[in-house]
């Protein structure tokens, strides 16, 4: 019995499910007011002016939306705003 027999319907769909969830989170962030947001798989980037109120608001919104949806975020995944 090969690996294909064991994972026929399971893991093959995982990347599509992950991308659909990330697309939904991206949409939620846009609806919450973060206009320049994009993602690649589970990595998100938000583009704003550095050291601005808009930047801090975007980070706060990201934290609030992910918290409300129960999306875990690694504290080390945040990078301080920089150019």
Taking all Cα atoms into account, the compactness measure Rg is: 16 Å
Per DSSP E runs of 2 or more residues, the count of β-strands stands at 2
Overall pLDDT = 83
Sheet with most strands: strand arrangement: 1-2
Strand content: 5-15%
Which spans have pLDDT < 50 for at least 5 consecutive residues?
none
Largest sheet: 2 strands, antiparallel
- Count of the domains: 1
Shape descriptor reads elongated
Secondary-structure element sequence?
Answer: HHEEH
Distance between the termini: 52 Å
Concise account of the structure shown:
The chain contains three helices and two strands, in the order ααββα. It is mostly helical.
Give the SSE map.
Blueprint: H1 3-6, H2 14-31, E1 37-40, E2 43-46, H3 53-69
Antiparallel strand pairs: 1-2
Commentary on this structure:
With 83 residues, the chain is mainly alpha-helical. It has one domain (3-74). 47% of the residues lie in helices and 10% in strands. It contains three helices and two strands, in the order H-H-E-E-H. The chain has a two-stranded antiparallel sheet with strand order 1-2. Strand 1 and strand 2 (43-46) form a beta hairpin. It is elongated and about 45 Å long. The protein starts with a helix and ends in a 14-residue tail after the last helix. The mean pLDDT is 83.
Features:
83 residues; elongated; mainly alpha; 47% helix; two-stranded antiparallel ribbon; 2 strands
